[in-house]
Specification:
The complex is a heterodimer of chains A (about 260) and B (about 300). With about 260 residues, chain A is α/β, with parallel strands linked by helices. Chain A folds into two domains: about 180 residues, Rossmann fold (3-Layer(aba) Sandwich); about 70 residues, no CATH class. In chain A, helix 8 links the parallel strand 7 and strand 8. Helices cover about 30% and strands about 15% of the residues of chain B. Chain B has nine helices and twelve strands. The chains are: A alpha/beta (about 260), B alpha/beta (about 300). At the A-B interface, helix 3, helix 5 and helix 6 of A face helix 6 of B.
């Protein structure tokens, strides 16, 4: 790894804003994220977290601001200037998106193997045996038994579906993964296992992750840095431990104190 | 019969559709030929037959047919099923054109489900009736999205479908409407023809036109265009093979239909292309179930005093 490249941010947002007509989605969001870094975006529902994630993943067009991304070839591009073809290619090679509801992120009528293999086929893999080997490998890595490769996600439990979603996203070795409340629909013990898995994979693969969550415990466990949002604006940022242990803003203090002590 | 006389006798314009409509369809056809495999939307008309009976094919045929054309219509390879007979009659009546069942005499062949076994020539046009023109439809229900996928040549999904086939059945189990890539660009549904016929589309000297009436799409494969069936490197595209020759004409390596003979498991396999089979039998080929030469065939040449 060349040091000078890693000194540059992977993704940098400047004054990102989104208005839905007169209504504010989010405004003035600026931050940098580096390779291997996990950034948590927390806040109550309606605080603009999902809008922000939509903007960052270029699914929503912004009202204002810019978003620069360092591509695999080292060139930094403004994401909103990419052509549709380039954008899609980026989305399924260099990026991943783990949805809150696995049904939005998976093809429910396609087998687990097909779900994992889809990205490979989309970038031109045409050898059935090799696609299948890679899919088997990834299923094992996310703790899904290899013999379930031909089962439909419909027959999977909630936790397995989330893990399948992760395998499907990581199979092309992305550098940046967006996660939208990946654990919120799971019960606590399954949550813990999934978080463990995510933490392991993130460390192993050196992923940059932007994770949106309303669960401060998830943020504390996974993230290096944290961004607190309220009414569409970022009100506090900093190292996760620092912000959670010593919140500066009144709202953050409220948020932290509202978590039940475990 | 010339066009004016025909109009007088039937009350319809030549080939049923009015000239402006035919012009609109021809424009769509020209565009389709210019962009091989691309689905061109057109203002499909109500036809005097139900959707599913080939209203798309009929409109394409009506737009290209002339008084000198000879029309053949087949349904599942056969010239004498209801669908084929009615469409042939339709054009015999509204256009006054000559119709035929012989592949070699036809200039326009409208078809549902088959491409004739006899190799088509540059003087012929084959018109396919298409129920569902969109190859991505069952994988991606949104039309806006499928159009985008075509525009970006983003066809990974097609392979997901084939992957699922192999995962479930051990081989690619899609046997008809097998997706093809046309001229290295667009992925196209060849209409519900068996995949047996896919290789016939490749570099065919005949113009191939596809009309989907209900879905309002026309697409085309111009003559001598590369048509490749999608596959995997380790599961290459293969056509169906049959263990037995045709029971009536004894031919091998053509597409056969199974005909149930009795309720005790008796069955025979015969050519699906009825004209091809008849032609071979007329040439004296015999299959195991064709039995003795029918009396009328025996006696007919005898009258001429020729040996058979």
């Amino acid at each position: 790894m060349s040091a000078h490249l890693n000194d540059l941010p992977l993704l940098s947002a400047r004054n990102l804003g989104k208005h839905y007509g007169a209504r504010l989605g989010c405004a003035d969001v600026s931050f940098d994220i580096y390779e291997g870094e996990v950034l948590a975006v927390v806040g109550e529902s309606g605080s603009g977290k999902s809008t922000l994630l939509g903007l960052l993943s270029t699914e929503l067009p912004p009202t204002s601001g810019s978003l620069d991304y360092r591509m695999r070839d080292g060139e930094t591009r403004n994401l909103f200037d990419l052509s549709e073809a380039e954008r899609r290619f980026l989305l399924r090679t260099d990026w991943g998106f783990v949805r809150q509801d696995a049904r939005d992120g998976l093809r429910m009528s396609v087998s687990a193997g097909g779900n994992v293999g889809e990205r490979l086929m989309a970038v031109g893999a045409r050898h059935y045996g090799r696609i299948r080997d890679t899919a088997t490998d990834w299923l094992t890595r996310v703790e899904i038994e290899a013999e379930r490769i031909d089962d439909l996600p419909k027959s999977f439990s909630g936790g397995m579906r989330q893990r399948l979603q992760i395998a499907r996203n990581l199979v092309t070795h992305p550098r940046l993964v967006f996660m939208d409340e990946p654990t919120s629909s799971l019960d606590v013990s399954v949550q813990a296992r999934l978080l463990d898995l995510i933490r392991g994979l993130v460390a192993e693969l050196g992923l940059a992750v932007i994770i949106v969550t309303h669960d401060l415990a998830v943020a504390r466990l996974l993230s290096h840095r944290i961004m607190v949002m309220r009414h569409g604006r970022v009100i506090e940022t900093g190292l996760t431990d620092q912000v959670l242990d010593d919140p500066r803003e009144a709202y953050t203090q409220l948020l932290v104190s509202s978590v039940l002590a475990a | 019969m010339n066009a004016a006389a025909n109009a007088q006798s039937t009350g319809y314009n030549f080939a049923y559709l009015d000239e402006q409509t035919k012009r609109m369809i021809r424009r769509a056809i020209l565009k389709a030929i210019a962009i091989p495999g691309y689905q061109v939307p057109f203002a499909s008309r109500e036809m005097p037959m139900p959707y599913g009976w080939g209203t798309g094919g009929v409109q394409v045929t009506a737009a290209i047919i002339g008084p000198d054309d000879v029309l053949k219509v087949i349904d599942q390879g056969s010239d004498d099923t209801t669908n084929a007979v009615s469409i042939r009659k339709f054009f015999a009546k509204t256009a006054g054109v000559e119709t035929t069942t012989e592949t070699k005499r036809a200039t326009i062949i409208q078809t549902r489900h088959r491409i004739p076994e006899r190799e088509l020539t540059a003087k012929q046009t084959i018109v396919f009736q298409v129920p569902i023109p969109e190859p991505l439809r069952f994988l991606e229900p949104r039309e806006t999205e499928t159009r985008k996928l075509h525009a970006l040549a983003d066809y990974g999904l097609m392979h997901v479908k084939l992957y699922e086939d192999i995962a479930r059945h051990g081989h690619i189990a899609t046997t008809y409407d097998y997706p093809v890539e046309v001229a290295g660009r667009y992925v196209m549904n060849p209409s519900p023809t068996p995949k047996f016929d896919n290789p016939k589309m490749d570099m065919s000297p005949a113009l191939q036109l596809f009309g989907a009436g209900r879905e309002k799409r026309i697409y085309a494969v111009p003559p001598f265009t590369k048509v490749r069936s999608l596959d995997f490197e380790d599961h290459p595209f293969k056509v169906q093979t049959f263990d037995t020759p045709c029971a009536l004409c004894g031919v091998e390596n053509v597409y056969l239909d199974e005909v149930v003979l009795d309720d005790r498991g008796g069955r025979m396999f015969v050519c699906s292309d009825s004209d091809f089979c008849e032609e071979r039998r007329a040439e004296g080929h015999r299959g195991e179930l064709s039995g003795e030469e029918p009396a009328f065939l025996k006696t007919a040449p005898a009258v001429e005093g020729e040996a058979t």
